[in-house]
UniProtKB/TrEMBL annotation:
Pfam families: Aminotran_3
Gene3D superfamilies, A to Z: Aspartate Aminotransferase, domain 1, Type I PLP-dependent aspartate aminotransferase-like (Major domain)
PANTHER family listed in its UniProt record: AMINOTRANSFERASE, AMINOTRANSFERASE CLASS-III
Cofactor requirements of the protein: pyridoxal 5'-phosphate
Keyword vocabulary terms for this entry: Aminotransferase, Pyridoxal phosphate, Transferase
Lineage: Bacteria, Pseudomonadati, Pseudomonadota, Alphaproteobacteria, Rhodobacterales
Top-level division of the source organism's lineage: Bacteria
Protein's recorded name: Aminotransferase
Keyword set includes Transferase: yes
GO molecular function: transaminase activity
Family: Belongs to the class-III pyridoxal-phosphate-dependent aminotransferase family.
Record-linked SUPFAM superfamilies: PLP-dependent transferases
NCBIfam families registered for this protein in UniProt: PRK07036.1 (NF005447)
């Protein structure tokens, strides 16, 4: 609900004149015609003109339990009435302590130490800083390079952004490039003609091991990987990739950070995808987004007992991990996260995701037959269509770069909002989506792709 009523033209002027949006295209700043989402219910959002749209990306991969959940809103309000804030530095609070415990019960292996952050970027940043801290305490100050991958996205703070391998995001901002090494694309779709998936997998694992050997294991601190590269275009590495990469890391004393900012909290039918879906227990997991179903900001960097033991007590050299935020473990966010966990569990949402995923994946796979679609890929409730000028030739480059936006516009006219990324559209609907709503979503998407195809010829 808006504080004051204002006509839509005025609100759009405020937005254009005063609000700098994330990834703001500076050529068009102040002249945008954005869709205003003003309300939400279940899997739907409503716009300023009263249209009801299926929210294909669940906000920004985050609104797991759907919109308009009054139970979570009430839990936040109750916490705000009782204690809106406290300082997490020298004090503690039972809501955030309980949340740390509830999260630790759901993480793989010995990942039991939860460092709360304000979102995904600060979770990744904290993970990276913790590893720097660990190596300094262990007397390994040279062991600082982090290996990441092309197409990865890890956030927008300086260190996290430096680990992000999307070409477009690296263009105009400085990076801590002395701390990074990027591996080539792990997308099987771009493998050499005639190369088998098995050979591609071997090559990608060898890329990691060779990078460690060439850089020197004494200089490489960690490997950071999203289980699925989401913002990079829902890239699903070949089966077995993460497990084999973890083995490589273990051989060379390189830590493994699994960035589950998108895949955590149910997106793949489990609390965390690392162990249940990809069969790995990493050293650190980062999460955010679905943790509170996006109702309020929160993130976490979850560290293994083993790593904490290495740098604590007698081994600590009296060091302080001087990284933290005013809002670490914010009680209102913690109350939202606790209620979110309760709802996901009580409503059987993880089981529901596992039940509807085969249907989602089947409808997604069928889109690959459309002429404009080069690849239709995904896993869990994560999907992407990548458009090419000529699907038989997989000619990505020849295509109009706004094709994703064209598809999104046609879909919006028909009740579905997507996230366009250059020649791709990605989607990750609220986890409560039913099978018939999945059909509705894919019917509109197929229409949007066909309509865009006819616009282009
Ligand atoms: N890590 C991954 C894998 C992400 O997808 C994102 C955001 O999309 C982030 C980190 C950054 O999260 P935030 O935008 O909450 O800072």
């Amino acid at each position: 609900m808006t504080q004051q009523t204002a006509d839509f033209e005025t609100v759009r002027d405020w937005d254009n004149g005063n609000f700098v949006h994330p990834w703001e295209g500076m050529a068009g700043i102040g002249r945008n015609d954005r869709t205003f989402t003003e309300g939400g219910e279940g899997i739907y959002v409503s716009t300023q003109t009263g249209e009801r749209l299926i929210d294909g990306p669940a906000g920004m991969w985050c609104v797991q339990i759907g919109y308009g959940n009054t139970e979570i809103a009430e839990a936040m309000a109750q916490q705000a009435r009782e204690l809106a804030y406290f300082s997490p530095f020298n004090n503690a609070n039972s809501t955030s302590a309980r949340l740390a415990h509830e999260i630790a019960k759901r993480t793989p292996g010995d990942l039991n130490h939860v460092f709360f952050t304000t979102g995904g970027s600060t979770a990744v940043d904290s993970a990276l800083r913790f590893i720097q801290f660990r190596n300094n305490v262990l007397g390994l100050p040279e062991k600082k390079i982090v290996i990441s991958r092309q197409k990865a996205y890890h956030g927008s703070t300086y260190l996290a952004a430096s680990m992000s391998g999307k070409e477009r995001d690296q263009g105009w901002l400085d990076q801590a490039s002395h701390l990074t090494h990027f591996l080539p694309n792990v997308n099987p779709y771009v493998r050499a003609e005639g190369q088998s998936i098995e050979a591609f997998l071997d090559e990608k694992v060898a890329d990691l091991e060779n990078a460690i050997l060439q850089t020197g294991a004494d200089k490489v601190a960690a490997f950071i990987a999203e289980p699925i590269l989401c913002s990079g275009g829902v890239i699903v590495p070949p089966a077995g990739y993460h497990k084999r990469c973890l083995e490589v890391c273990r051989r060379h004393d390189v830590l493994y950070i699994s960035d589950e900012v998108v895949t955590g909290f149910g997106r793949m039918g489990h609390w965390f995808a690392s162990e249940e879906v990809f069969d790995i227990v990493p050293d650190i997991i980062t999460c955010a987004k679905g943790m509170t179903s996006g109702y309020v900001p929160m993130g976490a960097c979850i560290i293994s007992d083993r790593l904490i033991a290495e740098v604590s007590g007698d081994k600590s050299r009296d060091a302080t991990f001087s990284n933290g935020f005013t809002y670490s473990g914010h009680p209102v966010s913690a109350a939202a996260a606790l209620k979110n966990i309760e709802i996901i569990e009580r409503e059987g949402i993880l089981e529901h995701v596992r039940d509807v995923t085969p249907h989602f994946e089947a409808r997604l796979g069928a889109l690959a037959d459309l002429p404009l679609v080069g690849d239709a890929r995904g896993k869990g409730l994560l999907g992407c269509v990548e458009c090419v000028a000529d699907a038989s030739a997989d000619d990505v480059l020849a295509l109009d770069k706004t094709v994703g936006a064209m598809i999104d516009a046609h879909c919006q006219e028909n009740g579905l909002i997507l996230r366009p990324i250059i020649n791709m559209c990605v989607f990750s609907p609220p986890l409560i989506i039913s099978e018939s709503q999945i059909d509705q979503m894919f019917d509109i998407l197929e229409y949007g792709i066909r309509k865009t195809t006819s616009d282009l010829v």
